[in-house]
Amino acid sequence: MTPELDLDHGFMLKPVSKSILPALFEAYNEDPTAAQTALPWLDASFNVQGQLSDMLFDVESQAGADRLHFWWVCKEDNNAFVGLVGLGDELQLVGSSYNLGYWVRPSFQRQGIAIMSANRIFSWLEERARAQEEFHRIEITVHPHNTAGLATATRICEAWQGETIEEFIGIEIGERTVPHRLHIIDLPRGGSA
Asked: What span, in angstroms and rounded, lies between the C-alpha atoms of 105 and 84?
């Protein structure tokens, strides 16, 4: 199960459900280009609201399987939709457990929310890994022109003793292979559980 997780500064992470579709679509429309960078599978020429709905349905229907964990970032005082963060299964390396993805809507950017969310999720995942004697490798893939995304991934890597792979890795987006920078974090830190 994907738990609710408290964050600092009046934010929290709530498991994704179909009920957030209107708020997610509104956030998408705040800056469609930025949203498409974070969600590269979105096809802007085709019913975006339907694609977002399908994604929410897929994530919610797999919530109990422990293969995916997706949260929406919520501003507690007014229940505002701030962004999405998740542990997905679009993996580049054999032996990886999850990939971390994050997207913060423009009106809430530059507040450290993606880093704060990643830190809380990794703390939860590390506690669970130690308790269940598991090992998890988490990937963060970022397009090399996404300067803010690279800075965020680098800061997360530094905080969690991760590493950045020097070679670019090709990721299929649409019908093109796009080079990305790959960051890797192993949990629990310090080796296997």
From this structure: 9
pLDDT digits (tens, 9 = 90+) for 23-79: 999 999 998 888 887 787 788 888 999 999 998 998 888 877 778 899 999 999 999
Computed over every residue of the chain, the mean pLDDT equals: 89
DSSP collapsed to 3 states, the chain: CCCCEECCCCEEEEECCHHHHHHHHHHHHHCHHHHHHHCCCCCCCCCHHHHHHHHHHHHHHCHHHCCCEEEEEEECCCCEEEEEEEEECCCCCCCCCEEEEEEECHHHCCCCHHHHHHHHHHHHHHHHHHHCCCCEEEEEEECCCCHHHHHHHHHHHHHCCCEEEEEEEEEEECCEEEEEEEEEEEECCCCCC
Q: Model confidence over 68-96: pLDDT tens digits?
A: 899 999 999 999 999 999 999 889 899 99
> Does the global pTM surpass 0.85?
yes
